Amino acid sequence: MSDAPDLFAAAGNGTGDAGATLPPLAVRMRPQTLAEVRGQGDILKPGSPLRRLVEGASGTAGSLSAILWGPPGTGKTTLAHLVARASGREFVELSAVTAGVKDVRAVMEGAARARDLYGRQTVLFLDEIHRFTKAQQDALLPGVENRLVILVAATTENPSFSVISPLLSRSMLITLTALSDDEIGEVIEAAVADERGLGGAYAVEPDAAAYVIRVAGGDARRALTTLEAAAGVADDGVAVGEDRPDALPITLADVERAVAHAAVRYDRAGDQHYDVASALIKSMRGSDVDAALHYLARMLEAGEDPRFIARRIVISASEDVGMGDPTALQTAVAAMHAVAQIGMPEARIILAQAVVHNALAPKSNAAYLGINEAIADIRSGKGGVVPAHLRGSSYAGAERIGGGVGYVYAHDEPEAVAAQQYLPDDLHGRTDYYRPTDRGFEARLQERWTWLKGRLGR
After folding, report:
1. Are 69 and 43 in contact (CB under 8 A)?
2. Does the pLDDT value for residue 404 go beyond 90?
3. Crossing angle of helices 271-285/289-301, nearest 10°?
4. What is the pLDDT of residues 252-289, one digit of tens each?
5. In this structure, how many other beta carbons lie within 10 angstroms of the beta carbon of residue 50?
6. What is the DSSP string of 245-308?
7. What does residue 129 show for φ and ψ, rounded to 5 degrees?
8. Residue with more model confidence, 396 or 158
9. Within a 10 A sphere around the Cβ of 394, how many other Cβ atoms?
10. Which residues are within 8 A (CB) of 260 and not within 5 positions of it... i.e. 6 or more apart?
11. What's the rounded Cα separation, in Å, for the pair 378 and 252?
């Protein structure tokens, strides 16, 4: 084992013959100090546990293990390297995709030697810890518990479901968030100007930078990868024998070619954000599945947060499909949870399934209209006291004031239907909030509700 490697010794533009041997732009631009880290201001503020860990604070705060949970490209690997740099710590990196219990034990043995022989603490960075089995995570516990190693584990999945409880209780859980558009813009500007990056050899046009930001979706690594690819496209566009400008322009067309699809004319913060979201909902409501998939694709390609899309689909499943197909809500809710756990790009498949279900399902807004009408009556002052026989009867004094007296237990009646008054007096016999349609599953409910109302004397 050795000190954290210096990945930033190489300089250059990262394109052309000289740059062919350089690490990727995202690696070259990895922050070397906390001052260079973009985003994550809340968890890195002075005095915070993570900052004290990065700065190598003395005592317990400087040696706690940490689990970093957040979407890709938010700085999990960067923060692990910064922790390793503090106070000359040893640094070992494992990936849960390829490592096993044997590898973990080897790290622990090496960490014990480094501590006993050289007085050096070891930082173990474990990427994708959610891929470790329970037995593999158990192997980490002794080293973490006695602080033989500082574990810095990274995951894109909720640790509450993917990390064993004993490991969670011995670690700080730190939630990272996607970078804002402004922060991604700062990442791009720094990469263009910095000698570790493109060294001022390129000039990114505003619409090209805006598109890189949209494509990135809060992921700094994706932004830098796209920028590097676009710089290569711009280089290819310089004709043989043509003088290359000191700052070669990177245009929107260069970025489009780099990501192999056209830019989506869509502003996530502007009117089109609402226009396209509205079009998605109305296309599902109108049962045009092709149009619904089109607008879903537009939102995804524009970098829209898939969790926002999932929430809109859940609302549509209740508001527009409702009891026409009750399973649409089940699909939508399952999709919302799956999207939160999986993320892009696979989340597109889950969202598409939910959109197709909503679009093709029989439609009913009867439940939606029913609750709206009930709320309107409440707000207008309707709805008297609860009928005495429906009031609670289990508390002291309830019987003395008639609570529960005369109540008929429905399960004791034929068909488990008790013919008694349920609505307050001022609404009894005059209210019909739920009016089921004759579409889909709700056609069966319409027949049953008509029968029930007859039994209830409604």
Report:
1. no
2. no
3. 150
4. 999 988 886 555 655 555 556 678 888 999 999 999 99
5. 24
6. PSSEEE-HHHHHHHHTSPPP---TTSHHHHHHHHHHHHHHHTT-HHHHHHHHHHHHHTT--HHH
7. -60, -25
8. 158
9. 8
10. none
11. 55
Q: What is the chain's mean pLDDT, rounded? A: 84
> What count of Cα atoms within 13 Å lies in the side-chain half-sphere of residue 432?
10
Give the pLDDT of residue 421: 84
**Positive or negative torsion for Cα 18, 22, 27, 28:** negative
Could you give all domains of the chain from N- to C-terminal order, each with its CATH number? 40-175 (3.40.50.300), 181-259 (1.10.8.60), 271-360 (1.20.272.10), 384-456 (1.10.3710.10)
Q: At what angle do helices 306-316 and 347-360 cross, to 10 degrees?
A: 20
CA distance 184 to 266: 17
Range 393-409 average pLDDT: 66
Burial of 242 (0-12, 13-18, 19+ CB in 10 A): exposed
Question: Residue 99's closest CA among 75, 125, 68, 73?
Answer: 125
Contact call for residues 256 and 263 (beta carbons, < 8 A): yes
Two structure tokens written together for 202: 């390129």
> Element (H or E) spanning 123, and its range?
strand 122-127
Token pair in block for residue 435: 């009016």
3-state secondary structure of 305: coil
**3-class DSSP assignment, residue 431:** coil
Determine contact, residues 27/165, Cβ cutoff 8 Å.
no
Contact 129, 102 (CB under 8 A): no
In DSSP terms, 122 is beta-bridged to 90, 149
Residue 136 scores a pLDDT above 70? yes
Q: Does position 15 have pLDDT exceeding 50, yes or no?
A: no
**317-371 residue pLDDT tens:** 999 999 999 999 999 999 999 998 888 889 999 999 999 999 999 999 999 999 9
Here the tokens at position 419 are 């013919």
Residue whose tokens read 């502003």: 267
Structure tokens at 369: 């209209």
Encoded tokens for 380: 């207008």
Q: Which residues pair with 318 in a beta bridge?
A: none
d(CA 151, CA 27): 22
Tokens read off for 417: 């239907």
Outline where DSSP puts E strands in 128-180. Answer: 149-155, 171-175
Rg (CA), the chain: 30
Q: Which two tokens stand for residue 213?
A: 């930001």
Please tell me whether the peptide bond between 345 and the residue prior to it is cis, using omega within 30 degrees of 0. Answer: yes
| DSSP symbol at 307 | H
Rounded Cα distance, 293 and 299, in Å: 10
Give the C-alpha distances (Å, rounded to integers) separating 115 from 89, 121, 133, 199, 422: 10, 6, 28, 41, 74
